[in-house]
């Protein structure tokens, strides 16, 4: 028995680590896009223009009220159909199979953006009004005010939420396996099915996720110290 | 949009079963999970050191790995190893161990215990020491202090966070569609496979979840308002919990 186990493990270790790399790539890309979507969403939610505010609210409320797995399946179908329609519009008759990678990143980023919207909204609102007024008094343009005052001012408030969302995102990448995309957990499931060693490979996948989440926890703790430099410790 | 399949009693029954299973799973996991959370929090605060470290480790693993991986680890991994334990097949608990509902409830209970345990631990720590000292001065026993003072005050402080945790639990239920348990998503997948309608069944259950979230949030809001005593000022930096 023991030699059986180690044979299967050795054979599958490479593909599983490969899968872990894909998982990290998806998560990093989706996070970057999610940050952008979150900034746009927060700006929309705080906008003085009502329709834009309503749009931002609808985005963050709807996405956050529906289970992630359901959204991922729904957006997977809707997303690939929409993209194909778009390609058909511009590229004539070419029906391109959209890569699973693009859909996975897009879907996760869309969900991530909604949660990020709320984090950024709260963090921006927590910036003292006087700082913004001071920027206006110094004649800062709107973009300069955003980059020089709003962004660095909100980061200390937003970072705890951002780090939690990153952890949620890393764990949510496992949901992509349900739509058949080959990342860490999908590969682990294949390994488990072919060796019948379910407990071993699922525990291995779990351990790899744990390494990723604990590792990023340490990184975020450092980042938080950095953006809070010069602030009184709480 | 074609919703004509809704009149088929077969699909009606599947959706209803899925709906009932979803609510049951949330109810069982919320109640058992909360009991586990109180236990975890108390062990970490007052328990013997080795046990406290064990709970801390378990909490870290549960919070650091995907819930889907945990669910399949218990269902496919542990569940397949169980029949190899001699005598278990003949025992009274075997029917329970064959039921996929058991594995769903087990995974979610553990998850609620770990996440909510952390929330409760923080809340228990922020109950002013003087209130507990007052309890001791009145001659309350340790249990009485826990049940009458410490726990109610802690729950009062973190009730909004508990609401959030409950919604997270509700939203994790579709994961059980990956095991042999009929939930709303599995019912929708069945309709999708048989009628080739992609959006209608998925949008329908998205609507059901939306409604359930709204109902659950308003019910919890009602409870929050009913809780005696004014709500204390929100803590300065309330961390969103990783889910």
TrEMBL record, chain A:
User: Where do the ABC transmembrane type-1 domain residues begin and end?
Assistant: 20-220
Secretion signal, residue range per the UniProt entry: none
| CDD domains attached to this UniProt entry | TM_PBP2 (cd06261)
Membrane-spanning residues where?
Answer: 20-42, 54-78, 98-115, 198-220
A Gene Ontology cellular component where this protein is annotated is: ATP-binding cassette (ABC) transporter complex
Keywords from the UniProt entry: Amino-acid transport, Cell inner membrane, Cell membrane, Membrane, Transmembrane, Transmembrane helix, Transport
The entry lists its GO molecular-function terms as:
transmembrane transporter activity
Subcellular location(s) of the protein: Cell inner membrane; Cell membrane
Task: List the InterPro entries hit by this protein, alphabetically.
Answer: AA_ABC_transptr_permease_3TM, ABC_transp_permease_HisMQ, MetI-like, MetI-like_sf
Q: Which family does it belong to?
A: Belongs to the binding-protein-dependent transport system permease family. HisMQ subfamily.
Q: What is this protein called in UniProt?
A: ABC transporter permease
Protein species of origin: Chromohalobacter japonicus
Automatic annotation (TrEMBL), chain B:
Residues in ABC transmembrane type-1 domain copies: 19-220
Membrane topology per the entry is: Multi-pass membrane protein
Q: Which PROSITE patterns match?
A: ABC_TM1
**From what superkingdom does this record's organism come?**
Bacteria
Transmembrane portions of the chain: 23-43, 202-223
One Pfam match: BPD_transp_1
Leader sequence segment: none
Family stated for the protein in its record: Belongs to the binding-protein-dependent transport system permease family. HisMQ subfamily.
PANTHER family the record matches = ARGININE ABC TRANSPORTER PERMEASE PROTEIN ARTM, MEMBRANE COMPONENT OF AMINO ACID ABC TRANSPORTER
**What name goes with this protein?**
Arginine ABC transporter permease protein ArtM
Q: Which organism is it from?
A: Chromohalobacter beijerinckii
Upper classification of the source organism reads: Bacteria, Pseudomonadati, Pseudomonadota, Gammaproteobacteria, Oceanospirillales
């Amino acid at each position: 028995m023991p030699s059986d186990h180690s044979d299967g493990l050795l054979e599958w270790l490479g593909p599983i680590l490969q899968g872990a790399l894909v998982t990290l790539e998806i998560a990093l890309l989706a996070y970057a896009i999610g940050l952008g979507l979150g900034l746009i969403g927060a700006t929309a939610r705080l906008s003085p223009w009502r329709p834009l505010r309503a749009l931002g609210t609808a985005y963050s409320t709807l996405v956050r009220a529906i289970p992630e797995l359901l959204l991922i399946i729904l957006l997977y179908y809707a997303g690939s159909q929409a993209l194909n329609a778009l390609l058909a519009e511009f590229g004539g008759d070419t029906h391109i199979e959209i890569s699973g990678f693009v859909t996975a990143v897009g879907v996760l980023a869309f969900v991530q953006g909604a949660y990020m919207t709320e984090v950024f909204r709260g963090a921006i609102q927590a910036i003292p009004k006087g700082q913004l007024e001071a920027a206006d008094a110094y004649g800062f343009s709107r973009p300069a005010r955003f980059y020089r005052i709003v962004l660095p001012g909100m980061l200390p408030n937003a970072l705890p939420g951002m780090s939690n969302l990153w952890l949620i995102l890393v764990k949510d990448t496992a949901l992509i396996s349900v739509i058949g995309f080959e990342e860490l957990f999908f590969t682990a499931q294949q390994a488990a099915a072919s060796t019948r060693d379910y407990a071993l490979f699922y525990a291995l996948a779990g351990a790899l996720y744990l390494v990723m989440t604990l590792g990023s926890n340490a990184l975020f703790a450092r980042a938080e110290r950095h953006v809070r430099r010069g602030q009184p410790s709480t | 949009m074609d919703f004509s399949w809704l009149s088929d009693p077969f699909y009606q029954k599947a959706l209803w079963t899925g709906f009932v299973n979803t609510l049951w799973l949330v109810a069982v996991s919320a109640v058992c999970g909360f009991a586990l959370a109180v236990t975890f929090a108390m062990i970490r605060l007052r328990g013997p050191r080795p046990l406290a470290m064990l709970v801390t480790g378990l909490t870290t693993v549960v919070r650091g790995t995907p819930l889907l991986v945990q669910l399949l680890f218990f269902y496919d991994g542990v569940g397949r190893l169980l029949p190899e334990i001699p005598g278990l097949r003949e025992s009274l608990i075997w029917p329970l161990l064959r039921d996929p509902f058991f594995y769903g409830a087990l995974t979610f209970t553990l998850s609620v215990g770990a996440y909510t345990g952390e929330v409760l631990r923080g809340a228990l720590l922020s109950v002013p020491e003087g209130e507990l000292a007052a309890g001791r001065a009145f001659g309350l026993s340790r249990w009485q202090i826990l049940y009458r003072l410490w726990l109610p005050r802690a729950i009062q402080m973190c009730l909004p966070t508990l609401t959030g945790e409950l919604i997270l639990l509700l939203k994790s239920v579709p994961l059980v569609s990956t095991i042999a348990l009929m939930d709303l998503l599995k019912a929708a997948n069945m309709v999708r496979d048989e009628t080739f309608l992609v959006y209608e069944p998925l949008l329908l259950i998205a609507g059901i979840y939306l409604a359930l979230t709204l109902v659950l949030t308003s019910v919890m809001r009602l409870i929050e308002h009913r809780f005696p005593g004014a709500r204390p000022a929100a803590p300065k930096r309330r961390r969103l919990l990783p889910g």
